[in-house]
Fold:
Amino acid sequence: MAIITENKDESCIIMTLSWEVKLPPIIEVQSLSKHFQVPEREKGLKAAVKSLLKRKYRIVKAVDEVSFSIQPDEVVGFLGPNGAGKTTTLKMLSGLLHPTRGTLKVLGFEPAKRQYDYFRQMTLVMGNRNQLSWDLPALDSFELQRAIYAIPDEKFKKTLNEFIELLELKDLVHKPIRNLSLGERMKMEIVGALLHSPKVLFLDEPTIGLDVTMQRRIRSFISDYNQRYGATVLLTSHYMADVEALCKRVIVIHHGRILFDGELSALVDRFSAYKTVGITLEDSSIDLSAYGEIMDRDGSRVTLRVPKSTTSEVTARLLTDLQVDDLTVEDPPIEDVIEHVFSIPAETEK
Amino acid sequence: MRRYLDIYRTMMKVSILEQLQYPVANYFYMIGMIAEPIIYLVVWSTVATQQGGSINGLTPQYFAAYYIVWTLVRNMNIVFTPYGWEWRIREGQFSMSLLKPMHPLHGDIAYFAGWKVVVIVLWLPLALVLSVIFKPDLDPTIQEGIVFFVAIWGAYLIRTFTLTVLGLISFWTTRVSALFELYFAAELILSGRLVPMSLMPDWVRKLAWFFPFQWTFGFPIESLVGDLPVNQLLLGLGMQLLWIVIGIGSVSILWRFAVRRYSAVGG
Structure:
């Protein structure tokens, strides 16, 4: 970890390098819960009339006793199926929702207090929400962002030009937002959300609905921003390519509770009971079902699914029994692992 | 302070630019809105003529002046309604505004203020046409003109704050529009919107003193057309200021509780 201390009074810059210093976390969440009281009733007229007199409520634990911390400049993937509690957590972290219980601190602020100094240092990008004026070119909306965040003119111009160049927006910033494609609009939204150079980014499905090329462009921009500005990023996405490209660490939330918090590779180790064995044989007619579940066969190339505990034994047998041209052992695709994790029922987690 | 001036200036500019995208739609909207005062004008002018030329001393020419100025005051009075609040809270559209380092109400006030600039410009030819048709008795002094200019912005702020208070109730129930209908009915009777307050029964005029409505319609109009004495003009501006202060106070108190309730699903 490199720490740079700038002493402006003495007009000198002191650089101290320390590779073992652990900085205090930027985001610290402890036993965070958000419960919603939701009215419910049976179907039909009788139940509707009855509910007028006596209303029944159910408590929905959207987020339940969640704890984690995130270090400066970390990029963390926040994964979970729909309704797992990801967006609710992001909303509490950003200051939109008040927690029912627990404590959270971001950049030393309590988001629920909604301090403007906090809002100046963070941003929340929601893939399905727009903040730019639909009828005007993005430049007009960016100008409004400049005024709201009191960004000095010079800094504003420099940052904007930098972002326009990075995202190749030169020809688009003069067009009304309504005339842009979904991907182009999303790029503009991201620029608008980052113009004030926030230190913490909460990104909720930033690539939702975009084509593969646009997803890649936005991923690369986020990664670039993280490196240039040392920003901390908490990202939710249903696209594993986003997570694999950006996040070394992932937090998996399911039914409002943390199911996993660690490195992406460790997630695969923990939740995948299988390995994928790819084998190319000289004789493609041989039946390999005795070695594992056949997932795919493409000419002489066969892909097997083998229980993790027997992988070494099976590969040894394959090499001994058969005339093998090529053999590979891989973890299953991250999508498969995540699908498996998301299918775990609530009771099992507890 | 300088920062807020910059925000207001830029937001008003954005609003004006947006309105200029749809000038024809804006004009049609304004023309559609004059149906209401024209009906009132025709009805009261006819009644005045049938009663020998005036009602309580108000002539058809006075009514013409009253309702032509009404069209501008009404347009100045358009603010973000509880319908809008209901929509933006229910749909989660408010989330982004809530994360800005400023109170979202600044955005609303500045945005609609920018719109008003366009409205005033669009209103001038419309008022000219109406004047040619209805021949109003309108000869304001410079003093009345200045008070009117201040009063229409005062009316705008009062209505912004009162409807924001109603809108904030959307944080508790997303069906606040029913309450707005009630507000609208009271405003129609107690504001001078339906008829000049001087034609209302005594008890209605007394009741109107307890509400902000007449300072958003009747007073601004009469400050220009009513030949009010200076003390009445100052009283009117003073009452507007009082209701603005009450409005700011009410919004501030309610906001603290309301924002804790924000729970737009999926937004």
